[in-house]
Amino acid sequence: MNQSRSVVITGANGFVGKNVGKFLSKNGFHVIGLVRKGNEKSINFARVISSDTLSENNLVSKIKGSSALLHFIGQGRQTIDSDYEKVNVSLTKNVIKLCKKARIKKIIYISGLGVDKSSTLGYFISKYKAEQEIIHSGLDYTILRASYIIGKDDPLSKNLQRQIKKGKVMIPGSGNYRFQPIFVGDVAKVMIKSIMENSFSNKILDLAGPQTVSYNTFVRQFIGVKKIEIKKIDFKHNDW
Hints:
- The protein has 7 helices and 13 strands.
- It has 240 residues and is α/β, with parallel strands linked by helices.
């Protein structure tokens, strides 16, 4: 196996992980997906079953010497059992340890667009902390601060589809806030450049699409000609 073309993906059974893994496999990479027990059938490339902590010693021999680890596990909502700090920060620390044990010199991390040291929201704070862990790890890194990543069955589109079936789409807040959605296929191409090109070494880059749209516009374009009620709700509302 050519180790320079071997990559490891955490969160390999997620929307981004499956799409990026499939793309890399088709483009000559040996892809090893780390998945939790029970989810191993959800991906169609090489997989290694692991726990949530990614700290088992038996993982090391299976991924040793890979050219890069793509860290895609992230927590966008807090629950009683899984909060931002546990997933976004503590798990990133374990991933760094895993890279060092397995002699993987490069880590590629998907952070969030808008993350910086002045962040006040819990999600962004945890992503910033994770970034800092990676930056000070001694590993080569590429941190990609991503906007919404869209494509077939992406989480945002699936959420809107569910609402459309119910006949009502909720728009949090005014809907005038703007974002730059990026197609998952373009994300996969950026991943190859991040793995292979020195110009991506030790960089923090925004990962966004070419067009900026308001959320209102995005939703209306997504709905198309369907007659669906659109309702504005307060950000604190839990009904969407």
